[in-house]
## 1
Amino acid sequence: MDIDTRRNPVSLAALVILTAVVLIGGFLLLQTDAMQNIKIFLTLFAVVWGLGSAALLFFTLNAVAESMPRKIRSVAVAIVFAGPAVFLLIWALVLPTFRTLRFSLMDAHGTNFIGLANYKFAFTDPIMLEAFRNNLLWMVFGTAFCVIMGLVIAVLADKSRREKLFKSLIFMPMAISFVGAGVIWKFMYAYKGEGFNVTEIGLLNAIVTALGGEAQAWLLIPFWNNFFLIVIMIWLQTGYAMVILSSAIKAIPGEINEAARVDGANSFTIFFKITVPYIMPTIVTVTTTILIFSLKLFDIVRVMTGGNFGTNVIANEFYLRQFTYGNSGQASAIAVVLLVVIIPVLMYNLREFRGRRTLK
Amino acid sequence: MKKVKDKKHSPIVTIVLIIIVVAWTVPTLGVFITSWRDSRDIYSSGWWTVLPHKDTVKTEEFEMPRDLDMDQPIEIEGVTAEFQEWREGIEVEEGRTLRWYGNKRSRKVEVYEEKWIGFGANLTLQNYKDVLSAGTITYEDAQGNTITRQGNNFADAVLNSIAVSIPATIIPILIAAFAAYAFSWMEFPGRKPLFIMVVALLVVPLQIALIPILRDYTNWGLNGTYLGMWLAHTGFGLPLAVYLLYNYISNLPRDIFESAYLDGATPFVTFVRLVLPLSIPALASFAIFQFLWVWNDYLVALVFLGDKNRVVTAALAAMVGEKGQDWHVLTAGAFMSMIIPLAVFFGLQRFFVRGMMAGSVKG
């Protein structure tokens, strides 16, 4: 069976031209000053144009592909379907990886080859060593607390009547940006300073002074300020761990718990001997995801301290090297370090994928 | 399938949970309440004072007779003390303190009493007006000084965030759905290695891509444009989108594609009429995931938008840097930045959780 999907060449050409006009014309129109002045109209136009262009592009490319000679038509259509995704992935992620690798061997402006000097900086500079130490703190304490808190809350909520409500509230910070969370916690840590009759407006200092302690500028205390920042990540990510672990816990067959209970096991024994071993694969996945997350952590540190007072992390130093010091060589070397640390996870994902299913 | 479970009510579990939940919610509540308070109040008292609590407040004042000899001990309400002591305040009875106001000539005595204050807050919309405004704003600080500042133009930032987030959510979905369909049901050269590439890219940190893309954008004039943001977010969101949608679309029953083919439908028509409507749960899951990610993103916006077309996260971060102590606008701004994602989150939590579970391999 063969359907003639070819269009008449004139209408096809008209369609292609129309698409080009919409794409290019819309972009140019968006840049004009007249548009910039009426912001609501600009926003509306941008959204409609962006979505319309994407749809129109697929429609036109498909029409072109369907007009190809029959022999190559099905491959042409497949290329129209998969091509844009593949093209964007290569442009946005694959090629940049190689280009960043190349930049990492070049000087600040990416013009001269300087060998491994940027890597020497990345692994020996005191600034970087401090960032590595802090990232290690984030990865160890941040991840451990997220997973443990998430697990404890998931288990407790499972036994509660108001499970949904409790879980929603713990989960809520997931919807808040790191910048927004930064403001929330900066306010928690607010410090008014010394002086006569100062009322602390930050909750933490108010609690400390009410208990007879002395108000502190929490974010300026060397070394420990890292932990005050890590608290923010725990606040944000525990909900994630909780939701995933909770659904794993619910998948444990009820009979196992029943049998254990009949044998006289108490809640703690059930938790350590049944629940935890049973959901171990999920715990590993959650831990890995949060580990990667804390390795790339940027926003919280950027907003709270800018990496000052001994709180710098790798991703913030990447940003500083590129945008404050204008050294794309050093910044690229840092990005490559981030990638290399993640490669084992990448390999694991690939092996899992190959083992689990082959492409049909 | 719902398991019928006998949930034994354990008070200890409930109490522990309530403590955790309160600890988790209070930071957000503090910012929310503060954003509605008068700027002077914010600096002179903690936000929790809007809740009913016991506090010492001035309830009345009275004048002493003019012929009073100030150099002798003074008797008021049965207590006799020196002027200096009165000036520091004396508790004449439980919960009632008298204090001489000002110098000797003022002859004014203020009465302070410990009282329950309930919801005595003086709430205002002014902070929101100030943070949205692009013009100059004036407010009073704790000492009563009038301060004039440039507004933060959050209204524009919200519109920018909308203009960035909606297309940066839907475009990757469209592109990924087409690709997922092709990977699931079409034959083309390089299908398998290309899909393995998608899986490998799931965890690649986006820092690796920022500098080269920034160079491209500088050459193409795309810095500071919505289009640049859409392309970047589409590129970074695609691995997860293709992976999630492939898992869904490849599991659709084969029969429907065969019958569509026999009816003479082209792949394009099959895709638009059958695949898209059938995949709505998966599309919605990813859409919420991507929308929250784009709306809350700070790094990509910082790199590719700079100061032009600032989105809410960038505007808020800039405010923290410039006006770190202006809590009345900071809290209002923080809340403005949260309101849309929170609405999406609570409205569509089910879909979000589903997308998150499927995508927990993403870095």
## 2
Amino acid sequence: MVAIKQGYATDGMTATSDFKAIQFYGPVTSLAFVRSNILLAGRGSNLSIYDWNLGQVLKEVNLFKRSKIQGIAEGQSTIMVWGACSLGFIDKNVLLEEFNFSEYILRDWILAGGWDYHGNACIVTAHNLLLHISSDCKRVEKISTCGVGCILYSASIFSNSDDVIVAAGTVFGSIEIWSSKNQAVVSSLKGHEGSIFNLKFSKNGRRLVSCSDDRSIRIWDLCSSQCLAVGWGHSARIWQLIYLGDDTIISTGEDSTTRVWRFHDGMLNCVQVWEGHSGRSIWSLAVAEDDNTVSTGGADGRIRLWNRANKPSMIEDRRTINFDDVARSITIKCGSIKQYIAVRATAYAFSTMIGYLVLLDTVENSWKQIYYSPALAGYSILKGWDDKPFCCVGDRRGFVYIIDSDDPSRCITIAPLAEICGKVTEIIPLSKDNLLYVLVQYGDGETPWSFFALQVDNGLSLEYSVALEAQPTFPIASACIHPKSDVIVVGSRFGALAIYSITATHATISASGCWRRVMSEDCITSLTATYIDDGNIDILLTSRNGSYSVCNIILSSDTETATLDYLHLNRLAKGSIEGATYLPDGLVVWGFRNNYFFVWNETLQCEIMSEICGGPHRQWNFRIYSPTEFSFVYTKASSICIVNVGDSGDPSSPNSILQEGSHGREIRAITVAPLTNDRNALLVASGAEDTCIRLCNVFGNGHLRNLSVVRKHVSGIQGLKWSTNGRYLFSSAAREEFICWKVTIRGKNVYLYPICSAPIETDLPDLRVMDFVVEDTIYNGARCYFVVTVYSDSAIKVWLFNPSKAEFRLLSIGRYKTCCIFKAAFYSTDESFHLLIGSSDGHITSWDLSKLRQAALCSPACETARKIKFPDPEWSLAVHQSGVKSLIIVRVADALAHESFTIVSGGDDNCIAVTKSTKRESKFLPSKEYAVADAHASTVTSLAQLTDGMVLSAAVDQHIKVWQLLSDSKLSLVEDTYTTVSDTGCVSTGSIVDSAATTLLIGGAGLAIWHVNNFWNSGK
Amino acid sequence: MGKCSKDKRDLYYRKAKEQGWRARSAFKLLQLDSEFHLFEGVSRVVDLCAAPGSWSQVLSRSLPEGSATIVSVDLQPIAPLPGVITLQADITHPLTLTNILKLFGGEPADIVCSDGAPDVTGLHDLDEYIQAQLLLSALTLATNLLRPGGKFVAKIFRGRDVDLLYSQLSLLFDKVTCAKPRSSRASSLEAFIVCEGYKPRPGWLPESLRVAEMKLPLDLESTITGKREGAVAPFIACGDLSDYDADATYQLEKGVQRISLEPVQKPTAPPYKTALEKKRNGTLR
């Protein structure tokens, strides 16, 4: 028997030698700026210390055993921290060194803390008590009350030389202002409805700002007790407020926005809105000494920095050019402006109605003519390259002109290949190495498209030209070129894709492949090629419908045909996508939403810039010069607005992500993949209430690298599992959603493509696919997956998933009773195959599916057979008093194991039970072996097997326990630790290559990463 | 209990409307009663945090007419119910106790129940704490109202500190059970604490529990090894297994037309009513 070890394993602290919490990504419950460069953050029970100027973590330290750090207040030489009933003090001088810390536990919840006029700490508790702490921070000197003892949701203190004033936010909507000296209420502020969630004094203590359940912000004059103004704007509850000296207020809340308000002329107006957290709720808010840098911490675990002065590290150079001014500036009469492009960060080329091409240098603010042709009068089309300062113009006769804007004498005119072609309707400039390419489409839709290659050396010369067979109803919208060979891929305005290999010597080259409606029938707005090998490329496509995808195209060796395969498909939560590119820190996409233009880093899930431009129906041009330099030009109200964004070289990085996080809602499923894209990390999929599936890497040090966030489900994720070979990921949710995702690993990238969804048969939005089991198998010589899904209406469905056909074929439907099925598992011997379920009536039930599976996999006739009869259960046993919330089949090192299976289950009744299914004369029968009735103090939500005979349990009581399954099927508790993850719901384990420790992931309201040393193996 | 998309999804929600209950929580009390026979020989009942009044409805329908005095207390107004005396009052206010005792003619209560819950914020620790405080307020009142041997039933959140609550309650009652009615979703942290056999402690004062709360330690260093004394209450699932299941999805019988039912009792004005109005007419920006 192993001795029971009890401990607290919160991040950074070793609970026992075998359990070590490494990292926590969850609600950031407090933030405070200290000194000029330090930001402190309460992340669970741990304090993270950042140098926000450098964007670095300096230190992470565990402070409290169980409580989350909910407040930090900086004093003269001491920092006070608190959370729940815990309180502690840190000497500022040793903040960055090893320091001793004592956790004091009061019996009341601490709502607010601060320092009085004399430099002593004060705290206010939920029962409206004010505690004066001695100057050595070791004793409570005095407790003040005001006689109103009702429960508070918020409090704040203000101190002058002879008194401490408390503002107490009650649950009934009133705010009580009371004096510590008189121990009496000074005034009662009435106006809010519902609980007061936060309140703050102004710096001089004359005013107060408050927010409540009614979603309004109120400013109060404390002399008259009058409400001066009410601010509306948040679409959900408001949690945090800051009152700055200049009557500026900052607020954050449940709608995940941060708002800046100005109180002016008796009005409280919202002047800025920042959106940069995912999911629900921003819990913490702080402002630096400069009153300019703001930090927010969300339920998503992210810490962000914002700059109130709108002076981010990115320098924004913006100017507006009025058309009339242009006309005046140009000395020659050039006519009115038709189109424009950016040629350099500081130069723009404009085509005019009467055939001129003029260049604006924004540094010298000078205009010059760079080209003129009467052929361009009346009709012309102007395009440019992202990385080259050339302009490309097409005319009404089909001619194309290429001009170097740096040296206009370097230019070339290219005649159309066909005699009759109509006007140039589209030009797509491409480039590679030292070559420029131009793809041209003409007004007459049947004319072959032209493809010109130009050599750029001292001059500009045509290398070759070829005609490409035009595809019918194919207005060209985008194109890209294979990085190593002359293969181009063209996208149309109607969602079609065509590929051409230019290696052939035919007069007119035919397409090797053409596919319609590739993502949808919406415009393919951009194409980006990634090299795999010759004749094999990955293409990144963006669509005006707001989706983007990655496809793989393989050309046949004779280049006559090509195949297209989807690797990835995802939809942005915002607007249309007009373009995309890979930058060093991730995939960047841009487009329009409502009336603004946005640039979004999809990998980091954060906005890089946005500009209210009035929407997409206007001329605009976006160019990226380098990972930190880009420009957006657009026309608005007969003016041209230029927004240049560039790296200022300032090392501080406001508007940035200081700390990366995870889901913004409770994680409901987490699973380590059997494969990885990085030897040094686990590949992990997680699903949450936010309906998203996230892929990330978890490194040995517990650090997280987000890979992608896919949005396909419309309800919270219930289940997530990989196939044994890691080639597919399955996910389930409400509305009968059950999706199979194809997994592709390309270097460090991992792609997910929703290859198929199970058909939806009812219109019940609440019909949840609670769990499922997948078995890799062989059908007709091909790899197939035998799948069982279980539902909240007691239905059990058996499917065969055939990847080559991308379909779920329904084999059989069974029904348990009328209750909800929570969990499912398979167990099998050489001869038989069984399904096990745990349901809300506390029963565990087993079916022998051998015949059904046999019929499905072996008989060719079943292709046509409609459905196979679902058998009656072989046994059903009442194991728990209420729902079976977790269930696993445990491997037991036992010779009899083939004939006997050990089932460990956890219930809503706090119980963990051991049940066996044993073969007795050709039939499996159940036996109740053992039960720990009070295994946990609340619902046992998850179980996992660590090694043979060792079972880990997680419950809503936030305890993680390890049980040894003894040979007599009894469970013996060997480890009991506490996790900072509340609403603890799911666990998964895995091992990084060459690592001795097992990594344990715990999901719930946040994600915790632990290391488990497999001491049980070493025979300790 | 308004009209919303939930109308389609929860069977108990729909049944509550069909049977004229003001909230689906009525079924929770009915199922608790079927397990614990809460209403046997009961003549004086107090329902705390009673709005909108579904538990009071259950009480008035379950207890024979005229056999019992039912007092329902809430800060919010409760629409009148036959056989129920409603009291708009704060349960933490000392006068409330006096007023209830007056209604009972100075006699103690047989059972005190509370289905109250706070505004849930999403910060689980805080929500559980506030719920525990609400429960302690109800318990303070209950200990001053109950006869020896009386019962106390209240909602709890089964979170991380639930074991502390169990140990506190077991000092005051012979038997403490954590019960989960089938009509309460397994996915919710909600459960009910059923305390039977009240044993008054000598020298108990109305403020006793609160005073215990207020006795904050003055020497902070003495609190460093704050030992937790937790206990686990036995768990009982209640309601028959053949009862409807709150987690399950039920198909409507074929041929039955889905009718949207009007709520039995329109919701009282929520605090964010103005914000919703502003959102609707587009002035929230």
